[in-house]
């Protein structure tokens, strides 16, 4: 038995959450008594593929002819790899790629899908996987009743573990059919070289409390100092103070960084829904009654226009020392 | 264009989530239900806009029991022409997708529009499954769609950016923010919705591949540690030494 890890790539680079996927697959394989195999695509450096062994992959299959992220092709590729390797469990990251490919694969193989898994399977009574539901306000234990299973894990929820090893790399081809979709353009979200929000370990976010777009300089400075991505609340994106792709929450994107700093955001339940998976939350708000303080680990009751510049200085001093 | 839009029921976004029956069921008491925002604001409204611009029809489809009828009426009030309800408890994504795919296949739609995800189960599963069962192209997380005859130019979110693509009808699409602007139904729409056709259809046999065995709430957060605004150095220290995140 093998556990197959779907490893996503972008312009020849393995995405961050793919390492978590490989590590997860390796742990499940160990428990089930099998090996972790990775399937990937694109023009990736052989050394990078071998290095997946450090996260537990024994073998990496690569198809260099697939160059874009069209879900139907990627699902066919993954299904063919699963068949060759005799893999009954296939693992994805619950990101844009996983969200598009995993359900197609699930229907193709009639394999039950748990999307947004936050833990390893519990096999004491069947095959049960814990996942996020109600926009992070609760968890559900999903039992998978089929022999084949597809799991997509929420990024930054299970972590990854390093082991000793190098993976054996093999070219892999399969009949992927003709695509009925023609890709005409791909535009990168962060042309300014910033850190993509979905991949960021640290995030600095601000809301209506900042009064206007001209006041974001200190927020960007804080983010730059920390190596963090920037985010915002919905009204701020709606009125155009900040770009739409920064909008986090129930109707924006959901993130789970290690640190989320919220400045001048009240902490409405729809906002919390997108950030409540963060490991540590810091809130800076003038209003001690702001609901966000209830969800926070650390807080400063104070005026952002005074606190943030001070914080920038303090971080500078800290970084000079460390 | 003959358009089918998947409409699901979701608890209002402010709902405090609780469970009953030994944490085996979602406690619906006192919960206000709404149309899943992605279905209503983006998939449905874009479908209606296309119909308004070039004619055709918009039918909504919902897999559920009678309790979803008020939600279906809301979608009709926004401007769908008619509705279909597949009379089956929507327990599992594959079961739901099989129902939608079967109905769509029999009735020849040019496009099946869904939301990018339900805010209660956040599966992002149904769209891809419908496409696979129908053997149609799947365009996930679409934020823009323009039509020229039967050729659609679509922008979708991909990991790290946006992709523009072209595809001919028929296809299955899941809609995200940007696709359309929310429409608040007016009185006339609400009145008209009452007399629009809501057809109830028997489900086809379809497996449930997964089931929920229980629910749990996240552990309560401890009290927030407040830091004096005059002493932000302490916050930096705590983030470094205690939380170990910087
Ligand atoms: C269906 C639905 C979906 C939604 N989805 C989302 C979503 O995805 N994401 C989202 O963010 N919202 C969402 N919302 C909106 C949400 O309900 C809130 O309205 C929104 O999050 C509030 O944004 P805010 O905190 O920036 O602004 P406000 O609520 O106006 O809060 C501003 C805060 O700044 C503080 N403040 C003011 N001045 C200062 C200062 N000088 N220094 C420090 N603090 C200051 C105030 O005390 C206040 O707490 C949704 C709403 C609905 C109905
Ligand atoms: N019970 C249902 N009836 C009709 N459509 C549904 C149902 N459940 C989900 N959908 C559609 O499928 C989309 C994705 O749902 P999900 O895969 O559950 O996140 C939703 O946005 C709806 O458009």
TrEMBL record, chain A:
The lineage of its organism: Bacteria, Pseudomonadati, Bacteroidota, Flavobacteriia, Flavobacteriales. GO terms for biological process: fatty acid beta-oxidation using acyl-CoA dehydrogenase. Pfam families: ETF, ETF_alpha. One of its GO terms (molecular function) is electron transfer activity. Residues 3-183 form the Electron transfer flavoprotein alpha/beta-subunit N-terminal domain. Belongs to the ETF alpha-subunit/FixB family. Its cofactor is FAD. It comes from the Bacteria. Binds 1 FAD per dimer. FAD binds at residues 208, 233-234, 264-271, 285. This is Electron transfer flavoprotein subunit alpha/FixB family protein. Keywords: Electron transport, FAD, Flavoprotein, Transport.
From TrEMBL, chain B:
GO terms for molecular function: electron transfer activity. Residues 23-210 form the Electron transfer flavoprotein alpha/beta-subunit N-terminal domain. Keywords: Electron transport, Transport. The keyword Plastid does not apply. The keyword Electron transport applies. It holds the Pfam family ETF. GO terms for cellular component: cytosol. Belongs to the ETF beta-subunit/FixA family. This is Electron transfer flavoprotein subunit beta.
